[in-house]
Specification:
CATH superfamily: MetI-like
Low-confidence stretches: 1-11
Distance between the termini: 38 Å
CATH architecture: Orthogonal Bundle
Shape: globular
Strand order of the largest sheet: 1-2
Strand content: under 5%
Helix content: 55-70%
Order of helices and strands: HEEHHHHHHHHHH
Largest sheet: 2 strands, antiparallel
Mean pLDDT: 83
Number of strands: 2
Length: about 325
C-alpha cells in the first residue's frame, strides 16, 4: 500500500501465524519517547541528589549534637556547643497541617459535590473558577491578611475556647498574638483550592450508569451520591487530601508572618493558642545564621526532616492513586 506522499509503509496485515507486523516507529515518536524518559530520569535524579545533599550536610552536625535531636526542645546551634532538637518544631508543623486538613477536607469535598452534582452549569463553571483563583493568591498576601485582618476577629473565639476548654492541653493559655489556631485556619483556605479541584475532577468522572442505576432503584439525590459518587471518588479524595497536606507542610511565608516565635529552649507546650515555628519558618527566620558549617547543618537537618515528611506524604498519595487505575 502506498501513502499519499508515495512512500511505502508496512501493511498491517496478519501473517501466517496471525501476528501483525509492527512497522517502523516514526522519528517524532522516538524523539518524544526519549524526551519523556529523560525528563523522568532527571526529576528522579534531582530528588535523589537533593536528599543526598541534605543528608551529607546534616550528618556532621547531628553527630556533634549534645541533646537528642528528636526529643529535645532546645535550639541553640552554636559552633562547638550544638544543642538542637525538633520536638517543638515538629509538633507545630504537624498541628498546623492537621488543623488545616480538618477544616479544608470537608469543605473541599462539599464544594466539589455542589459543583458537580447540585449546581447548574451556568453557576458551576464560574464558581469553580473563583475557587481555583484562590490558589493564585501569593502566600505573603494570605499572611498579611491573616495577621492584620483575620486574626483580630478570632480574638473573642480564642478566648472563649480557652475559658471553656482551658483544662485541655490543646487549648491552654496564655493566648499569643499569632497562634497555631489562626495559622491553621488561614492555611486551610490556602489548600482548599487543591482539594476542591482534584475532588471535583474525580466526582465528575463517576459513570453515569452508576448514578442513573441508583436513581432508578428509588434512591434520593443524597442516597445516590452516598452509594455511587462517594465510593467511586474515595481514592481521589484521599489522594487530594494528601497532596493538600504536602502543600501545608511546606508553607513558609504565611506561617512566618502569622505565627509568633517562641524563645529557644522553652519547655514543650502543646497548646494551639500559642505561637511556635514550623520547619519552613524556622529556617526562613534564621537564614542570617548560615555563616558556619556546623550551625548551618542544624537547619539543614531540620530541612531534611521536612523533606522526608513531604516525600512520604506525596508517595502515599501516589500509592493511593495507583490503586484506582482510572485516576493513575
Amino acid at each position: 500500500m502506498s501513502s499519499i506522499t508515495g512512500r511505502s509503509t508496512v501493511d498491517q496485515v496478519p501473517g501466517p501465524t496471525g501476528d501483525v507486523p509492527r512497522g517502523r516507529r516514526r522519528l517524532g515518536d522516538t524523539l518524544f519517547g526519549g524526551a519523556a524518559n529523560l525528563s523522568g530520569v532527571v526529576v528522579i535524579a534531582i530528588v535523589a541528589l537533593t536528599g543526598v545533599f541534605l543528608a551529607t550536610r546534616a550528618v556532621p552536625s547531628l553527630l556533634d549534637d549534645k541533646v537528642n535531636f528528636l526529643t529535645s526542645t532546645e535550639w541553640v546551634p552554636e559552633p562547638g556547643n550544638l544543642r538542637f532538637g525538633i520536638l517543638q518544631i515538629l509538633w507545630t508543623t504537624v498541628s498546623i497541617s492537621v488543623m488545616a486538613m480538618i477544616i479544608a477536607v470537608p469543605l473541599g469535598v462539599l464544594n466539589a459535590l455542589f459543583l458537580t452534582q447540585y449546581a447548574p452549569r451556568w453557576l458551576a463553571r464560574p464558581a469553580a473558577s473563583v475557587i481555583d483563583l484562590l490558589a493564585a493568591i501569593p502566600s505573603i498576601v494570605y499572611g498579611l491578611w491573616g495577621i492584620q485582618v483575620f486574626a483580630p476577629h478570632l480574638t473573642g473565639l480564642q478566648k472563649a475556647v480557652n475559658d471553656g476548654l482551658g483544662w485541655f492541653p490543646l487549648f491552654e493559655g496564655p493566648i499569643s498574638a499569632g497562634t497555631i489556631f489562626i495559622a491553621g485556619i488561614v492555611l486551610a483556605i490556602m489548600v482548599l483550592p487543591i482539594i476542591t479541584a482534584l475532588s471535583r475532577e474525580v466526582f465528575a468522572q463517576t459513570p453515569a450508569a452508576n448514578k442513573e442505576g441508583a436513581l432508578a432503584l428509588g434512591a434520593t439525590k443524597w442516597e445516590m451520591i452516598r452509594t455511587a459518587v462517594l465510593p467511586f471518588g474515595r481514592a481521589g479524595v484521599v489522594s487530594a487530601s494528601m497532596l493538600g497536606l504536602g502543600r501545608a507542610l511546606g508553607e513558609t511565608i504565611a506561617i512566618t508572618i502569622i505565627v509568633s516565635s517562641v524563645a529557644p529552649g522553652t519547655d514543650f507546650f502543646a497548646s494551639w493558642l500559642q505561637g511556635g515555628e514550623t520547619f519552613a519558618s524556622k529556617i526562613a527566620n534564621n537564614a542570617a545564621e548560615f555563616n558556619d558549617p556546623s550551625s548551618t547543618g542544624a537547619y539543614i537537618a531540620a530541612g531534611l526532616v521536612l523533606f522526608v515528611l513531604t516525600f512520604v506524604v506525596n508517595a502515599i498519595a501516589r500509592v493511593i492513586v495507583n490503586r484506582r487505575k482510572a485516576f493513575a
